[in-house]
TrEMBL record:
It comes from Marichromatium gracile (Chromatium gracile). PANTHER family: MOLYBDENUM TRANSPORT SYSTEM PERMEASE, MOLYBDENUM TRANSPORT SYSTEM PERMEASE PROTEIN MODB. The lineage of its organism: Bacteria, Pseudomonadati, Pseudomonadota, Gammaproteobacteria, Chromatiales. It is found in: Cell inner membrane; Cell membrane. Belongs to the binding-protein-dependent transport system permease family. CysTW subfamily. Part of the binding-protein-dependent transport system for molybdenum; probably responsible for the translocation of the substrate across the membrane. It is a multi-pass membrane protein. SUPFAM superfamilies: MetI-like. Keywords: Cell inner membrane, Cell membrane, Membrane, Molybdenum, Transmembrane, Transmembrane helix, Transport. InterPro entries: MetI-like (IPR000515), MetI-like_sf (IPR035906), ModB_ABC (IPR011867). The keyword Transmembrane helix applies. Residues 8-216 form the ABC transmembrane type-1 domain. The chain crosses the membrane at residues 12-33, 45-68, 80-101, 137-156, 194-215. This is Molybdenum transport system permease.
Length: 225
């Protein structure tokens, strides 16, 4: 039995890049949602949470339209000389970021709201700038939420299938990630290869849930302390 591990490394690469992008994009967004009184807050929060209830194939379909050669984003990327994003690894990253966005934003948002205004008000009385209050007060206090969001986003990206297949297809070495490889092995009746990859996913999922439970216990201890 020969087992190609390329989809495994491609999946880990995709999950790592997606998590990094979500940390950079999702953290300021979660902070804005926790602090703003804008009328747009509920609309933005709803849009962020939409992938939780939207079928992955629907999201993938509209991403294909937007990023394709006739879509507004696809037209822009072609004019910039970047080509189109569907059926490329970059397209997978874009789709994964959008699909996993709520798994990053919501835990971080909750962590920021749990801080309350008191520590920020104390920092303001010490003449700390808004940026300093965010970097030196809010982020350290919200670290458990950041870790939770990062773990959830990484794990969710590893297990993606519908969006990945719609936006990336099944190109070996480029867009054929672990979930698609398992599907291929099952479709080809290659049960042994499917067992190895699927069993690895079961073990990975168990470790993620265990890590989340331990992290939750740690957060409760900090809260009681």
């Amino acid at each position: 039995m020969s087992l190609d591990l390329t989809p495994v490394w491609l999946t880990l690469k995709l999950a790592t890049l997606t998590t990094a992008v979500l940390l950079v994009v999702g953290t300021p967004l979660a902070w804005w949602l926790s602090q703003t009184r804008s009328r747009l807050k509920q609309i933005v929060a709803t849009l962020v949470a939409l992938p939780l209830v939207l079928p992955p194939t629907v999201l993938g379909f509209y991403l294909l339209l937007l990023l394709g050669p006739h879509g507004p984003i696809g037209t822009l990327t072609e004019r910039l000389g970047l080509g189109t994003l569907p059926f490329t690894f970059a397209g997978l990253v874009v789709g994964s970021v959008l699909y996993s966005l709520p798994f990053m934003v919501q835990p971080v948002h909750n962590a920021f709201e749990a801080i309350g205004q008191r520590p920020l008000e104390v920092a303001a009385t010490l003449r700390a700038s808004p940026l300093a209050r965010f970097l030196d007060v809010a982020l350290p206090l919200a670290l458990p939420g950041l870790l939770t969001g990062a773990v959830l986003a990484f794990a969710h990206t590893v297990g993606e299938f519908g969006v990945i297949l719609m936006i990336g297809g099944n190109i070996p070495g480029e867009t054929k990630v672990l979930s698609v490889a398992i599907y291929d092995h099952v479709e080809s009746l290659e049960w042994a290869q499917a067992h190895w990859l699927a069993g690895g996913m079961v073990l990975f999922s168990f470790l993620v849930v265990l890590m989340m439970n331990l992290l939750g216990q740690r957060m409760r201890r900090i809260g009681h302390g």
